Amino acid sequence: MNPKAVFVHLHPRRLRRLPAFLYGWTLFFVISSGSMATLAVAFSSYLGKIVPLSPLIAKLAAISMIVVVTIVNVIGTRESANLQDWTTAIKVARFW
After folding, report:
1. Of 62, 69, 32, which is closest to residue 46 (Cα–Cα)?
2. 28 φ, ψ (degrees, to nearest 5)
3. How would you write the pLDDT of the chain (96 residues) with one tens digit per residue?
4. Left (φ > 0), alpha (ψ -120 to 50) or beta: where does 76 sit?
5. In 3-state terms, what secondary structure has residue 46?
């Protein structure tokens, strides 16, 4: 892959200061938050297949998923990796 062909792969130091600043905040507020919200809604939708949820409870489940993942990520990378290992083990164990 040619790093010059994709904007995301450009290191911020190679950009000018203002575009790097704007890209960083756009990534934080728009790009990452949109994907996080999509995953949270998908989580509550799949949870609704297992446990019946009202629309309000489904929204609260999505919000709580974002809060839990955020807290674990703030605590540290190792804890985030441990959470991912546990959730993967639960998914794999389900198929045995």
Report:
1. 62
2. -70, -50
3. 444 544 555 565 666 777 777 877 888 888 888 888 999 999 999 999 999 999 999 999 999 999 998 899 899 989 999 999 998 998 899 887
4. left
5. helix
**pTM recorded for the entire structure:** 0.66
CA 87, chain centre distance (Å): 14
Q: What angle do CA 76, 64, 51 make, to 5 degrees?
A: 125
What's the length of the chain?
A: 96
Q: Report the sign of the C-alpha dihedral through residues 49, 51, 56, 57, in that order.
A: negative
The structure tokens listed for 18 are 């203002």
Question: Residue 79's CB: how many other CB atoms inside 10 A?
Answer: 13
